[in-house]
Amino acid sequence: MRITRSVAGRRRRTAFVATTGLTVTALLLTGCGGSSDSDKGADADGNITLTLADFGQFGYKEAGLFEKYHELNPKITVKEDTTAEEKNYYPKLLQQLNSGSGLADVQGIEVGRIKEIVDTKADSFADLSKVIGVDEWVSWKAKQATTPSGAVIGAGTDIGPMSLCYNRELFEKAGLPTDRAEVAKLTEGGWEDFLALGEQFKKKAPEGTYFMDSASAMFNAVVSSSPEQYYDASGNPIYDKSASVEQGWKLAAEAASKKLTQGLAQFEDPWQAALRKGTIATVVCPAWMAGQISTYAGDANKGKWDITSAPGDTSANWGGSFLAVPKSGKNVAEATKLVKWLTAPEQQAAVFKAIGVFPSNQGAYDLPDVKNATLPYFNDAPIGQIYADGAKSIPEAVLGPKDGVIKDSISTQINNMEQRGTSPDDAWDAAVRTIDKAIG
């Protein structure tokens, strides 16, 4: 099972997006030329095999893009080496970078790792700034992979603009509105309104049901919707002083104390079972989460779910990755062409259609397969519009080298508040000890 794409344990599966068809012509127009004389990996007949190492589900195989690329470039064959868990992939990548061997022609890098790579390993990767057209990307996405000197070491694949997935059937049984516009209005004031809605739900909720799956997911959404998160602009960790962390922690503690959450670690077996049984009313939903819900809730719950905008007037980004080209590869020129092609608007739209991950390239937003996309499973929610609108309001945030460690440590302690009844003070102290030990 190819699952994880995030250092916070994020998993993804196919989202079953309903769109208009992406034409083969559009794909062909973005093709590349044949092999380059500067590449040393060609055989006697000029054939080149490009290796692409990634994790989880990038969607290229599902969208048939490797086959398309071979049709456009008969002498180029792409082989994908996928590691299911990003937490296993990244240490191996660091080891390969340190040893200078074993790297693929193209390497995937998760957003939670990109700052550390930019700071410590940028010289190991080719500069893509003159190749990929960085102006096509949402501005903050390009900056995440940009060095102080202006080199861009990774082309953005996808982003995770935030929305809110909710169970229409449970809302109706609890006496709440089910129309997505009405639900959005109830939470337009922000995450405080979201918790107030949770208290309304709890008053008439069917027995054995909960307003949300996990307070840690809400925490992540709160922090990710702020430009100030875990580090300041000088690169200093400020997680213990950050206003967004303080707000997110306070809201998570409130949700746990009021029993608004089922206290489930996302993506684990109990969480999957809860979706299948229909005991969860809301899930914080970055673009890729819809595929998780439809997969684990199953056919029996089709049409019972819907999607609306995230609480508040500022969206958040949760997730996203990059494709980078190691300088040490034998096929740097051809690998760079492949990265440019895979991250072009037409190909990102094809991946969105195949597995539901949202493009980072703004050129894809007006393509029919994105602009007109709906999700039949979620009551035909207009996800192309919802996610594009969300992407426009995501603030430019400072990333830090240990963002993933900090998120994971705090999420673990929020889970302890939910499941074990750990006091907020004790849970926070435990998170701080873990983080400080990890970041030094």
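The above is record 1. Record 2 follows with the same two-line structure.
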Amino acid sequence: MLDIRRLHMLKTVAARGSITAAAQSLALSAGAVSQQLAALRQDVGVDLLRPDGRTVALTEAGRVLLAHAHRILAAMEEAECAVAAVKGTVGATATLAALPSTVARIVAPALAALGADHPQLVMTCLVTDEAQLRELTLGTVDVVLGQRYHHLPETAPKSVAISPLLDDPLLLVTAADGFGERPVALRELATHNLVLPPATTDCGQAILHACHQAGFTPTARYVTADISAQLALARAGLATALVPRTAIDPGAPGIRTAPIEDHPILRLLFAATRRTESANPTTAAVVEALLTAVRQDRATPVRPSP
């Protein structure tokens, strides 16, 4: 009989591309993973992996087994969710992956509320920009608080369920003596010193797309994806930044914010979970806490500070 843990290791190695990378994500030694995969190879009687430069690749038999492994592992999770739904109680652990720009105004309030409502639930939060939906499909995390810019197509795998949380507009951010609160036409930024995220990022692409619609190509004086650095440069009067609303502390001193009136740039914040037929009470509780935090945050305007 095939071992579920070994099938999960095969799935992880296939996704990570190497035994070393898979071992790191599974918190195991590379030797332990190799040993389990050797046992899986012995179980099926055929090679499942072959060297491919510095990585490994699946053999034809490995690809066939992996396809079945996906279905088997999904069925196992479905069974666990079905039993949990009958119990109707929130579980003991869950892992959330969230964007750094969402921590202060959404994630922290949501986790605090979860701790009060479900004290038995131990939450782990991974704050990262990297490959969140892949981690979800691999089972490394249970809920993702992710983002998608509105000009980009939906790319979530069919195995992932998406719950929209918030349309989060980018605001213009300047020093306290900047625009004020009046709406600003995006084309006005053509003459500004700008701090922009790299053009290779989704946010950078969204800004470029909007600026082209407004009739100009922006020139970045400063390039960084670090929102705290963007805000610092704006506060110092060195540049105008375009920052998502939820990434701005409403009481932050020394800055002013203004909405874009003609070509709004929106990112959709969403909660993602693995798709199952039966509702998982634990992930449902996490998503509901995120939704509640968003509703409460929307009632808090970003105010200009002196």
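The chain has nine helices and eleven strands.
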